[in-house]
Specification:
By secondary structure, the protein is an alpha+beta fold. It contains five helices and four strands.
Amino acid sequence: MEFIKKLLREPVSWVKRRIRTSGQPRRSFLLEKMPKNAVCAEIGVWEGKFSDMILRRTNPSKLYLIDPWEFQPDFPNRMYGGKVAKKQKEMELRYEAVKRMFGNK
């Protein structure tokens, strides 16, 4: 809970600078602040790469993976709206891959 309170106190611009450097996502600093063996959730899982990092680095007691895996053409500049995924079937394949990756953990 303290981690969330700290994150909420940080100025938005600071968080944005930490997350994006040279156009590449950098969220690993969040893992350093997350408590070990806690209940965790990731909202916006996509292909589960960061979820795997959460699992390996923080060893959560539970990890909830939240994502609609829904193609949304109203957002053409987003990965899920046409920038990467071009149709719902691609989103379903991502969902199935994430289930296989984390199904037994």
